[in-house]
Amino acid sequence: MRPVSGLCPKAISTLGLFLLALVWVSLVGGCSKSPEPQAPLSEHDARMAWWREARFGLFIHWGLYAIPAGEWTGETNHAEWIRTTARIPLEVYDRFVGQFNPLKFDAEEWVRMAEEAGMKYIVITSKHHDGFCLFDSRYTDFDVISTPFGRDILKELSEACRRAGIRMCWYHSIMDWHHPDYLPRRDWEKDRSSAGADFDRYVQHLKNQLAELVGNYGEIGVLWFDGEWESTWNHERGRDLYDYVRRLQPSIIINNRVDVGRSGMQGLTKAGEYAGDFGTPEQEVPPTGLPGVDWETCLTMNDNWGYNKNDNNWKSTEDLIRTLADIASKGGNFLLNVGPTAEGEFPPPSVERLRAIGSWMKSNGEAIYGTQASPFKALEWGRCTQKPVKGGMRLYLHVFDWPSDGKLVVPGIFNAPGRAFLLADPERKSLPVKRAEDTIVITLSGEAPDPADSVVVLEIKGLPDVNEP
After folding, report:
1. 317-330 pLDDT, tens per residue?
2. Can you tell me whether residue 2 is helix, strand or coil?
3. pLDDT at 39
4. Which of 9, 202, 339, 408 is the most exposed place for a label (fewest CB within 10 A)?
5. What confidence tens digit (pLDDT) does each residue in 195-217 have?
6. β-bridge mates for residue 386, sequence order
7. Tens digit of pLDDT for each residue in 58-75?
8. What one-character DSSP code corresponds to residue 72?
9. Is the pLDDT of residue 26 over 60?
């Protein structure tokens, strides 16, 4: 439509002017209104919104297995699976209940360490495969209330998380090596009969405890299931359990291990109508991003999930920070594990790494929280995350290998560049930027601000227009 200002006033009658004025007022009034609201998020997207924003969480594996600390009859390669890997009879393992007394446990301190590391949610083992519960359950005596400690650990943690603004989440095993109705038995338990066991009765027990976990501790962020791979579990049971938990608390997020569609340790759900809100790669990061798929890599700091006093194969802080950037650059979340001691403390090497990651996150967290996957297939010098800004996109260039010539080359991008700066620079001084054919070149100065990951921000106009260089 041609604008009114372009018409010749002499050619318009008084009536015409009046009518055109009405049209113009109508148009201007329409333009001055607030933009039409976007379509509301789907129920799934609304539920996932905080989780996608968070990007970084703390996994905690803790239970009776912390007492032997990975060692049994001279072997030192055990951890949270020790009851079955060491073939400990049930009556012997039960004795740990009388020894569990973590007097150094401090919920506020645990939450503070997670918060200072830049983590936005905590997932703790409410019950691992051994069946021991870290909470007060009316459906079993095999729980923390039966120990000398006698305090509901999950209650204390959930209250501390709520005060700190951290999301509280539960890991709960479908498998249960302690409950008399759980099947199958371990293949080495020759003297533990399964006669009279009723798996359907066990499933009801499982649901009863989940109702406690979802109903007694306020709003729960995630129910993180595991142990779904044995023959007694199937798709029908998984779908039923997913729907059951969703009815208890509609906002809760449930991982894909509630069902049987997971593809091994790669953790992503196979094609089909399987239940679950996100995939769960374990001890690995997918090689590429997965458009339209929510996923979370869970990873240990050393070689074990539960505490093993002899496991000193710690990943470096540099490796963990780069893993966080790698995962975010592919659109995933990072769930980093700590296995506390039997006394209730995080091992010192875990604390050191959490503090170092937290120091990096204080300067660079903007390049992780709420970011989207990289528009680039590969970058020789590091990774990229991105966020939309007014009129374009902000690219966070995670530089692992600082260029020796001071020229950071961003390949195969055709957008007009805006300004660039170091994210860790409190003054955010602009860096020289120029186009060189199908690349953007940012001139850097001095040494890398952080040898693990120095983040250079590049603002571009419009959505990324990237071609494989």
Report:
1. 999 999 999 999 99
2. coil
3. 57
4. 9
5. 999 999 999 999 999 999 999 99
6. 372, 395
7. 999 999 999 999 999 999
8. B
9. no
Q: 356 Cβ partners below 8 Å, 6+ apart?
A: 317, 321
% of the chain surpassing 70 pLDDT: 91
Residue 36 has what pLDDT?
41
Of 265, 266, 375, which is closest to residue 330 (Cα–Cα)?
375
Q: Stretch 136-155: mean pLDDT, rounded? A: 98
**Alpha-helical runs (H) found in 56-147:** 82-85, 90-93, 107-116
- How far apart, in whole angstroms, are the C-alpha atoms of residue 235 and residue 254? 15
If you ran DSSP here, which 8-state letter would residue 427 be given?
T
Task: Single out the residue of 156, 219, 168 nearest to residue 58, CA to CA.
Answer: 168
Q: In what order do the strands lie in the sheet with 407-410?
A: 407-410, 439-443, 433-436
Kindly list the strands in the beta sheet with 253-254, ordered across the sheet, starting from the edge strand earlier in the chain.
Answer: 253-254, 222-226, 167-173, 121-127, 56-60, 333-338, 296-299
pLDDT at position 12 is: 32
Summary mean pLDDT of the chain: 91
pLDDT at site 231: 96
Q: Is the full-model pTM beyond 0.85?
A: yes
Delineate the domains of the chain, giving CATH numbers in brackets: 43-367 (3.20.20.80), 382-461 (2.60.40.1180)
Q: Classify the phi-psi angles of 433: left when phi > 0, otherwise alpha if psi is within -120 to 50, otherwise beta.
A: beta
Q: Are 423 and 399 in contact (CB under 8 A)?
A: no
Give the span between the Cα atoms of 139 and 176, in whole angstroms: 14
Would you state the pLDDT for residue 463? 94
User: Is the distance from CB of 207 to CB of 246 less than 8 angstroms?
Assistant: no
Q: Distance between terminal CA atoms of the chain?
A: 42
Give SS3 for 191.
coil
Task: With beta carbons less than 8 A apart as the criterion, state whether 79 and 65 touch.
Answer: yes
**Would you call 362 exposed, middle or buried from its count of C-beta atoms within 10 A (0-12, 13-18, 19+)?**
exposed
Nearest to 451 by CA among 410, 379, 385, 401: 401
Residue 181, both tokens: 């109705």
**And the tokens for 437?**
């054919």
β-strand pairing of 167-173 with 222-226: parallel
